Amino acid sequence: MKVITSRNNERIKDVVRLRDRKARTESGLFFIEGIHLAEEYIRHCGFPLEVYFTEKAYNSYRDFFASLPEDILCSVSDSVFEKISTESSPQGVICVCKACSFPQSLPEKGSFLFLESVRDTGNLGTIIRTAVSLGVEGIVLSPDCADIYNPKTLRASMGAVFAADIFMPAEFSAAVTSAKKYGKVYATALYDNSLELGKFKVCKNDSFIIGNEGQGITEEIRSLADNTVIIPMTGKTESLNAAAAAAIIIWEMTRSYNGR
Amino acid sequence: MKVITSRNNERIKDVVRLRDRKARTESGLFFIEGIHLAEEYIRHCGFPLEVYFTEKAYNSYRDFFASLPEDILCSVSDSVFEKISTESSPQGVICVCKACSFPQSLPEKGSFLFLESVRDTGNLGTIIRTAVSLGVEGIVLSPDCADIYNPKTLRASMGAVFAADIFMPAEFSAAVTSAKKYGKVYATALYDNSLELGKFKVCKNDSFIIGNEGQGITEEIRSLADNTVIIPMTGKTESLNAAAAAAIIIWEMTRSYNGR
User: Fold this and answer.
1) Domain ranges, ordered by start, for chain B
2) How far is residue A116 CA from its own chain's centroid?
């Protein structure tokens, strides 16, 4: 087990750099905080590369640490830990992990949730959590979505990112087009003269597109969809919360293949 | 139009006190921040009692201020405004409003969303926003829910609180019992051997109970329900986000009377 007590240690500086998307992309690494995310990561992806922890955390989670290989453990002082942490009340555990390379092309069949320009890390994480919870077959991200490996995305996803089938095609529009071979593609919209969700039958290989929180789906992508869809509302409010709207869409989308 | 430039002004001190639930309850007043909430309040409840604003806000929203009676306007210095505001990037508009007295007893028929001990202000506001958006007939709060008039609840509700039919019975269990006269009452649960949402027919006057984020519904209230219900999930995640789970429940609940 290694021990680091200097805030100027080069390894610690490298971990702190992983707060930035650019450093994550260049190194192919990211970090996660807290016991729950660590356990979810290990459950789905195996051991992390390095685990940094405080003495207090070591004493609080003895079983967890006992289950890890000795050579990935690195005990750090509270002051060093604070330098890395992005949490307001940290649990004292940070794992450095290897990023996945997500496939570019979609499988030959299936129902997909396309996320175009979902820029809010909390929304992206929550949408992925809902999609994995309800059994979406594949989640397809446009290149300008928030970063999957941003600490806030990971936190909001509660680790669902590690269990998700995520695709990151370089050409988002081509991926949308390819999904049309297997079923209909619905673009969620905010305007009338769209189909009303819940009033038409969603079939097993149909896909849905969710757009940016403020701007919605771009005209380019919308024009590729077979139909636009709205969540029918009373008009007493202007809109739904983004995570709530996505949950309803995902629920209706997975209804078709979950036999509800 | 009044002008206040002293942070020690007694009126300003009274407004600042409204940050606390106790002061809100005692005075029967609360405050809202931002143009959107102000517009929603006016749309549903009429003019507020007082409007505090900065010069910058006055110049940015001239039409809004022109539509208000002169005698409720109170121009304040930036320093005074900062003292009242709870926002990180305030728009410079705060309205002091009279709290509603929500009815204790439920109407003689209808479908209700019961919220037991929903303590997180953000969740409470988001759930109310979703319920109003989708057309829930009545929202029934247990006395230990977060405060409707907490600035964070109001912000998350995006003003839906003002459009909602809210009930606050002193005896929450008696209200649940009374709803059973008109239809079934379903308690949302996290354990198996419950009915699966989406696999049974929800009828027009059926009601649902959503419990505390961590503890769920108390045994006392659960025992009053006709059935427990779960949202069927893949098991790849531990749970859904509270606002996402509530959105799915509300969507299925309103499906019955919205003809979806």
Assistant:
1) 2-98, 112-258
2) 13
CB atoms within 10 A of CB A240: 24
- The beta-carbon neighbor of B163 closest among A236, A241, A251 is A236
* pLDDT tens per residue, range B105-164: 999 889 999 999 999 999 999 999 999 999 999 999 999 999 999 999 999 999 999 999
- Smallest CA–CA distance from B199 into chain A, residue: A260
Residue B43 at interface with chain A, using a CB cutoff of 8 Å: no
Q: Measured on CA atoms in the order A128, A131, A132, A138, is the torsion positive or negative?
A: negative
Sheet containing strand B195-196, strands side by side: B166-167, B138-141, B112-115, B207-210, B185-188, B227-230, B195-196
ipTM: 0.93
Which helix or strand (DSSP H or E) is residue B122 part of?
helix B121-134
* Chain A 69-128, residues with CB within 8 Å of chain B CB atoms: 126
Cβ within 8 Å, pair B158-A199: no
| CATH superfamily of domain region B112-258 | SPOUT methyltransferase, trefoil knot domain (3.40.1280.10)
**For residue B110, which of B12, B194, B24, B208 has the smallest C-alpha distance?**
B208
Using CB atoms and an 8 Å cut-off, which of residues 124-183 of chain A contact chain B?
Answer: 126, 129-130, 132-135, 156, 158-160, 163
Neighboring chain B residues of A231 at a CB cutoff of 8 Å: 134
C-alpha angle B239/B241/B242, rounded to 5°? Answer: 105
Which residue type is seen at A32?
I
Given CA atoms A55, A95, A17, A82 in this order, what sign does their dihedral have?
negative
Helix axes B121-134, A242-258, angle to 10 degrees: 60
CB B247 within 8 A of CB B129: no
* B243 contacts chain A (CB < 8 A): yes
The whole-angstrom separation of Cα A241 and Cα A126 is 12
CATH of the domain spanning A2-98: 3.30.1330.30
End-to-end CA distance of chain A: 51
Is residue A229 within 8 A of residue A243, CB to CB? The reply is no
Q: What is the pLDDT of residues A176-196, one digit of tens each?
A: 999 999 999 999 987 778 999
